[in-house]
Amino acid sequence: MRPTGPLHLGNYHGALANWIQMQDAYDCFYFIADWHALTSDYENPRMLETHVRGMILDWLSVGLSPEKSTLFIQSRIREHAELFLVLSMITPVPWLERNPTYKDQIVQIQNRDLSTFGFLGYPVLQAADIIMYKAYGVPVGIDQVPHVEITREIARRFNFLYGDFFPEPQVLLTETPKILGIDRRKMSKSYDNAIFLSDPPETIAAKVAQMITDPQRARRSDPGNPEECNVFSFHRIYTDPNTVFQIDAECRTAKIGCVECKKIMAKHLSEALAPIREKRAYYEKQPGEVNEIIENGCARARKEAEKTMEAVRERVCIETKRP
Ligand code: SF4
């Protein structure tokens, strides 16, 4: 996960909720991809350290467990850069140029110069991140599937050139509930429409009050359609089923107004996020414990990465023993 700022509900439902569940079924490696953040934000790295720290706090507060999973920071494991370099030698440029995300972002993101080698090559770094741990699978949303495919192609090419070594990782497709921002666009920090996991109740209430509801319901006396309402999607996740049933009926008959409906939702959302806020407050006061969690996670990851790189160096005939 790229550390670009505080995590929001879209991040939670799109990835973290699934990651938390996977901890019991798999030996998971989760890392903060700070080098990846540089591929697009290289001009403005000043906030990077703050975002890395914030992300580890967010992770711990939602329930990613350092006992169950390996939590680490990418740049602390220098082997990722070394494997990226080796894989760069064998990855044909057209594979990267046809990457749909690359083509899309080059057009969409106009306020930054992304015509860099690093931005074109970030799927190679991703491949290094994944195959370093000989991953069986990568949990991704549908839009990330092409990246895993490039990783599989790169792993295949390495194996073809230097003998079977890396398994081809599987796509572990994640079904996620649709969570939109308060303006009904995709929830994103850059759209300024996000509800953050660390938002206090008053901020949540203020943001929910601004949420766009059923666009056809112009007046209080108009019946609404919950299926068309973003507030109702949140009710479905955070409010108890009986209340959801009641709101559904009352919205359709204009018995309930949007102001009241939003207040009910904000209350339930705020209550659901309370344990996350409390855990975050705990970890904020325990910097030593957090540092230790990071150190231990990095040490575990490094051990695996060193093993992989020793074998890789041997296969590409680069001196294994270092002076
Ligand atoms: Fe949406 Fe609730 Fe308003 Fe109905 S009453 S349109 S569900 S906010």
Break the fold down into its secondary structure elements and pairings.
Layout: H1 9-22, E1 29-32, H2 34-41, H3 48-62, E2 70-73, H4 79-90, H5 93-97, H6 100-108, H7 117-120, H8 122-131, E3 137-140, H9 145-162, E4 170-173, H10 201-209, H11 230-238, H12 241-252, H13 258-284, H14 287-315
Parallel strand pairs: 1-2, 3-4
Helix pairs in contact: 3-13, 4-8, 4-14, 8-9, 10-13, 11-13
The protein binds iron/sulfur cluster.
Iron/sulfur cluster is lined by residues 213-214, 217, 224, 226, 229, 231-232, 247, 251, 256, 258, 261-262.
Task: Summarize, please.
This protein is mostly helical.
Can you offer a commentary on this structure?
- The longest helix has 29 residues, at 287-315.
- The protein has two domains: 9-178 and 287-315, Rossmann fold; 199-281, Tyrosyl-Transfer RNA Synthetase.
- The chain is elongated, with a radius of gyration of 22 Å.
- Helix content is 56%, strand content 5%.
- The protein contains 14 helices and four strands.
- The model has no long low-confidence stretch (mean pLDDT 93).
- It has a two-stranded parallel ribbon with strand order 1-2. A two-stranded parallel sheet has the order 3-4.
- Helix 11 packs across helix 13 (258-284).
- By secondary structure, it is mainly alpha-helical.
- It binds iron/sulfur cluster.
- The site of iron/sulfur cluster has 14 residues, from helix 11, helix 12 and helix 13.
